[in-house]
Amino acid sequence: MIIFNSHKALEIIKPFLSDNPIIVEAGAFDGQDTKKMALQWPNGIIHAFEPVAEIYERLLKNTSMLNNVHQYPLALSDHTGISEFYVSEKPNKPGIASQAGSLHKPKGRLKHSPLIFPRMATVQTIMLDQWADENGIRAIDLLWLDTQGHELAILQAALKMIDHIKVIFAEVSFIESYEGQPLYQDVVAWMAEHNFEQVGRDFVDETKSFFGNALFVRRF
What we know:
Shape: globular
Number of strands: 11
Strand order of the largest sheet: 1-10-11-9-8-2-3-4
Number of helices: 6
CATH architecture: 3-Layer(aba) Sandwich
CATH superfamily: Vaccinia Virus protein VP39
Strand content: 25-35%
CATH topology: Rossmann fold
């Protein structure tokens, strides 16, 4: 098991991918990680999803100059349609959407984080299988999931694509941060059932924080 610093995630992932990977990033936020991936794999293609309109505008501003990035104002989900999204804000920056917004109602994380969730937004959602069909995507080299409790729901609905994903980097939680959110061990168990091995994580144990990130690679 590789234990890595979260800021070094792309360096850890790189050996598992080719020089021209197809990357799907769900929960791209303002594009900070998107830009890093675009620079790490200049011959790859990054499909970045961000459903909240005001944040999506920031994503476009920060990545529109990158020819290998395609942006979508959508949330990957377990259904295609519309959903209510809980928008997060920093208390000292009211009215400005921050990270940690979710399709799930905030729960346990409210005790561990200063972020607040004062409003909701209606967002468009799409299933990964449908999006892949519509865009001619046959395989995904890296699926990057930062969707605040919705990671496993996305995967469970990807009945067709799940067998054609090579690497998954997913945020995991050790508490029910959002209502109905599967816990870390639930995600690990599901991944193992679907032929993915956990090869790395950015935490030593589950006592130092309420969430972390885990790296899974398909077993061949």
